[in-house]
C-alpha cells in the first residue's frame, strides 16, 4: 500500500511538494531500486530467522509511514519511503516461506496465493484511498495510511507468536549457488523480470501516459484500482486450481500473450472504455501469474524457498525499475511507451517453451 501512495495522485503531489512529476515517480521507483540491492541478503534472513525478520520488516514499515507525516518537505517524505522500501524485501520474501513453515504441504499453494493476493490488496487500498481522498488532501492520505500501517505491524507481530506447523529449516545447509544455478529458477526469473517489470511501470506511469487522451487523474486512479483489483481476485482464486490441474505453462502462455496485446491496444486506441478493458486483462493476467510462479519456485527450491523468492522478487523489481525508467524517458510519447511494454512481454514468450521439461503434464 505504502509503495503506491503517490501513484494515483502524481500530478497533485508534484504541485504539493513543489517538485517535478519525475521526482514524484521516484517515490515509487525507489522500492524496486532498493529491492534489487537488498533482496538476496534479506532472503537469507527470512530463510534463517523467519519470525524475527518478518517482525523487523513490519516495524520498519510502520516507522517509515509515521516519518512521512513529519512535514510538507519532499526530503522528509523521501526518507520515510526509503525506510519502507528497506523493509519491503523482508515482507515480500516471506510470501512463500510463511506458508511453507506454518501450513501443511497440501495447503501451501493456497497459502502462497492468499499471501500474494494480500500484497496486491495493499495496492488496491493505496489506489482506492488515492481516488477517494484525492491529491488535494495529501496529508490526510498519509495519516490514514500510517494508521493502517501501524495496525498491520502490530497484528502481524502478534500473529507470529502462533506455533509453527513445521519446524524451521536449517537454511545454512542450502547453498545459494544451487538456487542461482537452477535452470528452472532462471527461467522463472526471466518471466518475472518481464511480467512484473511491465506491471510496475504501468502502475507508476499510467496516469501521465493516458492524460493526453483526455483521461483525468480521478479516472486514471480508478483504472489503476480496477487493474489491481482484477489481479487480487485472480491471484486469490485461480492459482490453486491451476497448480492442481498442472496447467501452469498453459496459463502463463495465455497470460503473457494477453497482456502484450492489451498494451498494444492502449497504444492504438487510448480511450476510457478500451483502457478499462485493457487494465482488467493486464491485472488479472500478470498478478495471477506471480503466485503461480512463486509456487513453482517454492516447490523446486525446498529449504531455500526464501532465497528463491528473493531472487524472483529481485528480478521483478529490477524489471520494474528498468521498464519504468525507459517509460519515464518516453512519458511524453504514450503510444511508444505502451509498445515498449508490449515488446518486453513478447520477449518473455520464448522462455515458456522449456517449462514443459520441468513441469508435470496437464491433467486431462
TrEMBL record:
Chain ranges passing through the membrane: 20-40, 49-67, 73-92, 112-133, 139-162, 183-202, 222-243, 250-269, 275-297, 309-330, 336-355
Bilayer topology term: Multi-pass membrane protein
One of the record's GO cellular component terms: plasma membrane
Record-linked PROSITE patterns: MFS (PS50850)
Subcellular localization, as worded in the UniProt entry: Cell membrane
Sorted UniProt keywords: Membrane, Transmembrane, Transmembrane helix
Domain Major facilitator superfamily (MFS) profile: 1-360
Protein name in UniProt: Putative MFS family arabinose efflux permease
